[in-house]
Amino acid sequence: MKLFSEKAIVQLLAIFLGFTFFGAGMAKLYDGHSYFGWIGPVWLIERLEEYSLGLYAKFIALSQVLIGYLLLTTRFKLLGSIMMVPMILNILMVTISQQWRGTPFVLAVLLIFNLIIIWHYRSFFSPLLNESLKKVKSNSVSLKSSLGHLVWLSGLSLQFFSIAISYYSLRFAFLISFAGLSISILSFLVDKKINLRNLK
């Protein structure tokens, strides 16, 4: 008997990658780099500003927040994993050009984890190779609603709002960030209620 199913493994990888990059992006943008995360460097923006690349570094950080959040909340795992590939490659090029030891190997492992998620959803890529295909076999049994998307989006918006608030009150900023994450996760309950209502 398998300890974890393929779906469970993909779910765990998505949460891990999401936490990794979401935390990394928030830590770069939060006041005093106070947000929790295990991968760095949190001072990337300050470092690249020396080469007039501060705006590019902020773009990377914002991309990490968005893409990481897509995976962390598991609502848009496929979209997040696709967007993750060019983001990791961009970060990889920065680390190689700056001759940072160790970081390229860590990114390579994270890229492999991400490719596992993409492979799980490989049936969705058929229309990219053959545009005449009209139907795609879905791995999901539940439908996501527009209202659920809106609830999820409101949670994401709170993350960016918490970044601005962190420069005034870290405690309040963390509360807003946690509230946003909770709201986004609750979007699945919204979907469930709407699906049940439609079945009646």
Could you give a quick summary of the protein structure above?
By secondary structure, the chain is mostly helical. The chain has helices at 6-29, 44-49, 54-72, 77-97, 103-120, 126-129, 146-165, 170-199.
Commentary on this structure:
The chain is mainly α. The protein has 2 domains: 1-140; 142-200. It has 8 helices and no strands. The radius of gyration is 18 Å and the shape is globular. The model has no long low-confidence stretch (mean pLDDT 88). The chain crosses the membrane at residues 51-71, 78-99, 105-125, 146-166, 172-190.
Structure characteristics:
DoxX protein; 200 residues; 0% strand; membrane; mainly alpha; transmembrane; 8 helices; transmembrane helix
Blueprint of the fold:
Blueprint lengths: L5 H24 L14 H6 L4 H19 L4 H21 L5 H18 L5 H4 L16 H20 L4 H30 L1
Helix pairs in contact: 1-3, 1-5, 3-4, 4-5, 7-8
Unreliable residue stretches: none
How many structural units, i.e. domains?
A: 2
Strand content: under 5%
Quaternary state, please? single chain
What best-fitting shape do the alpha-carbon axes yield? globular
The helix content is over 70%
Through-space gap between termini: 37 Å
Tally of alpha and pi helices: 8
Count of extended strands: 0
Average the pLDDT over all residues and give the rounded result.
Answer: 88
Structural class: mainly alpha
Q: How much is the radius of gyration in Å?
A: 18 Å
Biggest sheet statistics: none
Topology as a string of helices (H) and strands (E): HHHHHHHH
Organism: Algoriphagus ornithinivorans
Keywords: Membrane, Transmembrane, Transmembrane helix
Protein name: DoxX protein
Transmembrane segments: 51-71, 78-99, 105-125, 146-166, 172-190
